[in-house]
Amino acid sequence: MKLRNLVLAVGLIAVFGVGVKMTIARGLRNNNPGNIRHNPQNDWLGKTGVDDKGFVIFDKPENGIRAIARTLDSYARRGIDTVSEIISTWAPSVENNTSSYIAHAAKKLGRGAGDRVSRSDYAELIEVIIQHENGQQPYDRGTILRGIAAA
Questions:
Q1: Which one, of 102, 128, 99, lies nearest residue 113 by Cα?
Q2: Is residue 91 situated within a structural domain?
Q3: Are strands 56-58 and 47-50 parallel, antiparallel or unpaired?
């Protein structure tokens, strides 16, 4: 009977998080699912502050997603438009496993690393960025599209 009670207790901890510290990824806490760092040159719409690690805090997820789309637009204007170029610029190898990130993005987009990405691909690409940056992608497609439309 003791083993059964132990199994039940462990099950309760797993299901209800009893005694387990639950944390939300920084990008989701900050409504900044792309983990965009503060840059004084960018006065982002909906920016409410900067956290202790230098990441922008937005008032709502749509404005964080808008910032991702505007950054991607900026890349496109500079000719940074392939999966590899975009991810290498977004997540430089000095602080990321960029090759893994590129492979993840290419697979999710159904593209090769050297394939071009256009604005019509932003919803899927932004979902990949959010997933990779936060370990999950909790936003519905409508939220993603509202952020892109506001860009």
A1: 102
A2: yes
A3: antiparallel
